[in-house]
Amino acid sequence: MKKLRRSARLVDMTQYLLAHPHTLIPLTFFSEEYGSAKSSISEDLSIIKEAFEEQGIGVLKTVAGAAGGVKYIPQLGLKQAEQFMHGLLEQLAKPERLLPGGYLYMSDILGDPGTLQLIGKLFATVFADKEADVVMTVETKGIPLAYATAAYLNKPVVIVRRDNKVTEGSVVSINYVSGSSKRIQTMSLARRALAEQSRVLIVDDFMKAGGTVRGMIDLLQEFRATVVGCGVLVETADVSERLVDEYISLAKLQEVDLKEKQIALELGSYFTVEG
């Protein structure tokens, strides 16, 4: 039991809530932790709730009843998200990012902790109510995005491999058609990595025709899993046939001029739908 002044208790409670997103915490936990009456704890939580909402940190949801408590739901407000994404679009539009095939170099962005944190919080905001059991991606560039998102959803990460590894044990493998190159490729997932009938949120960094995401969806059928959402950081606009219908993007690659080295980007479907 901690004996703290109220100011210190508020800081300690706030830190605990931030470290345990999407977790129902009984009032009795805080009451016993600080040796305080539940009425005092409720007052403290009201102060924290107001601060979270004013600062755009998220919401503090109260669950009534004997088994109730409070739950911190991380949220990035639409205005904050738009400001962040406009800054990210400026970085992505730099000519030196152009790669053969119309791809963008994004490894530096996906390696920046601050940027990843905000992308993860934004994805967690988008899919907060989907009740996913796991966050899934395919190696390699989607991995940091998946972990950033999973941290705010407080869920484990499942990684689909492009080749079998002895350390993975028994695996389920499928062949899929790459949407852009039309090549037949293989992806696999360890049987122990995902429980059957799981609810899965798919996160990836880049989508052209959607062949890779389509492959993951087909692979999940082998586990009788349900895809509750699909989020991509950047999608391309110039695709005649998309292999995935339901997904949300944060940015859209509108046009690429390799000769002039010009890149045109705009906000993705999340913002256009919300707007």
Automatic annotation (TrEMBL):
Bacterial purine repressor N-terminal domain sequence ranges: 5-74
Gene3D superfamilies in UniProt: 3.40.50.2020, Winged helix-like DNA-binding domain superfamily/Winged helix DNA-binding domain (1.10.10.10)
Record-linked InterPro entries: PRTase-like, PRTase_dom, Pur/Pyrimidine_PRTase, PuR_N, PurR_Bsub, WH-like_DNA-bd_sf, WH_DNA-bd_sf
Any one GO molecular-function label of the UniProt entry: DNA binding
Superkingdom classification of source: Bacteria
Keywords for the protein's UniProt record, in alphabetical order: DNA-binding, Transcription, Transcription regulation
Annotated Phosphoribosyltransferase domain residues: 112-243
Biological process terms in GO annotation: negative regulation of DNA-templated transcription; negative regulation of purine nucleobase metabolic process
Family to which the UniProt record says this protein belongs: Belongs to the purine/pyrimidine phosphoribosyltransferase family. PurR subfamily.
NCBIfam families assigned to the protein according to its UniProt record, in alphabetical order: purR_Bsub
Assembly mode: Homodimer.
Protein name listed in UniProt: Purine operon repressor
Organism this protein belongs to: Brevibacillus fulvus
Upper taxonomic lineage: Bacteria, Bacillati, Bacillota, Bacilli, Bacillales
